[in-house]
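Here is an idea for our session: we take a single protein and study its fold together. Which protein we use is up to you, so please pick one and set it down. Once you have written the record down, we can walk along the chain together:
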Amino acid sequence: MEILERRDTNAVAYLNMNAPERLNALSDEMLAALQDQFYSLKEDRTVRAVVLSGSGKAFCAGHDLKQMTAGRQSEDGGKAYFKDLFDRCAKMMMTVQSLPQPVIARVHGIATAAGCQLVATCDMAVAAEGTKFGVNGVNIGLFCSTPMVALTRNIHRKQAFEMLTTGRFLNADEAREVGLVNRVVPVDQLDSAATDLAESVAGKLGAAVRIGKEAFYNQITMTTPDAYGYTGDVMVENMLYRDTEEGISAFLEKRDPNWEQ
């Protein structure tokens, strides 16, 4: 049984975390498998969108606590292991946002701690009714400091701080209201909702989405004047694409574009 399954359909790559007995925890093996697939996708121009899901009862329950406990048994009390673990996890999360393809989290059950971080890291998210989201490490004495990075870049500070300090879970509707997920649908519509969103993205000009995703994350941390200067240059580059010219011509001529990319 593969810990991470992949299938490609209609220019969409579907990645499924397949460790249901561990609630798809971000074990050493899961982190490595995700990193490998994301590296592969980075160079794959046949894929224009990615859907990330989890098998069993949950999307992802965060780090593997049993492995973390075992890692503590070293002479330094686990310091080197924990530093390496959180570095590897951060690298994987940052790779998600560096991919040229938008990544959509298909979330059900629970998404806790680093699992909630993964949802916040993905570019978009679709959740099933009844899903719960939490950065609840504080309940066991471990403040979710690294999950906090992605969470605070998705939702308002006070809401994030309450979650982090109380361990309170958000339900799916609350997650949508605060901006953690895009859509909430009945469980039996989760697959179709994620697929519809992914295929909508995949149907757009891949080169435009690639340049746009990179610009989206780059401009967020800039001042407003710097952001306008930077994105103006991006739009100039985009306008010079052959396929953009074709897209504009097709719109004016009321026909489908004949895109090459």
